[in-house]
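I would like you to help me understand the sequence and structure tokens below and explain how sequence relates to structure.
___
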Amino acid sequence: MGLITGVLTLLYHLPQIYKWLLKPYYIVSFLMTVAFLVVRKTPGLCEHLATDREDGNSCDFDWREVEILMFLSAIVMMKNRRATFVMTCKPPLYMGPEYIKYFSDKTIDEELQRDGRITWLVEFYANWSSDCQSFAPIFANLSLKYNCAGLRFGKVDIGRYGEVSQRYKVSTSPLAKQLPSLLLFQGGREVMRRPMVDNKGRAVSWTFNEENIIREFNLNELFQKSKKLNKKQNHPQTEEGSEELHQESNGVEEPTESKKDQ
């Protein structure tokens, strides 16, 4: 029964797996992984390779190559448990447009508490995390759509600023699976975060895509409220300007009463 369930789950997620794997860096990573194995085992090519084997068979692995392959496999499995047999490369860094403010350990508290009317959606990330690098274009696209005076987007590198990680209780351990983490702040206080964390300090499984973020954080509603806030802030200024223009057009100053008349 368990085997049937696993096969059905694999078939259900097969389109998403294909979409995830058909990216340039994964394709290049797979080709680089199998290139040496293919050359070492292909007749006509392997015969021209050097070998340290005692029998002189260059079409088989020697003890040094076996040690190197086992060492690399152990590193890959420790770094990313999902990459068991295939050595994957990190996704390329996102260099596109964005409306995101980058915080440091000295500026994050000040910015979040400066104006209580501003809502902040902050990503806690680490440069070494491939999941954070894959999420970067999604978060940048959301900032381009929803950033305004009352709804701001920010990022902080907790791999660099460990004090921020401890202060906001976001673990950088690969076992915790809390990277990236999105925290929503209103009035300088955290009101929501994804992924959520269980009692053991591990992140509850959650998919970081644009649809889930918009739905879970109510970005459409927050954006509409922020636009109304902008209108309220601009409205008193326009009224004061119209009164000044009205007085100037009349050219008559209002009489001022003396203290005795009052």
The two ends are 94 Å apart (CA to CA).
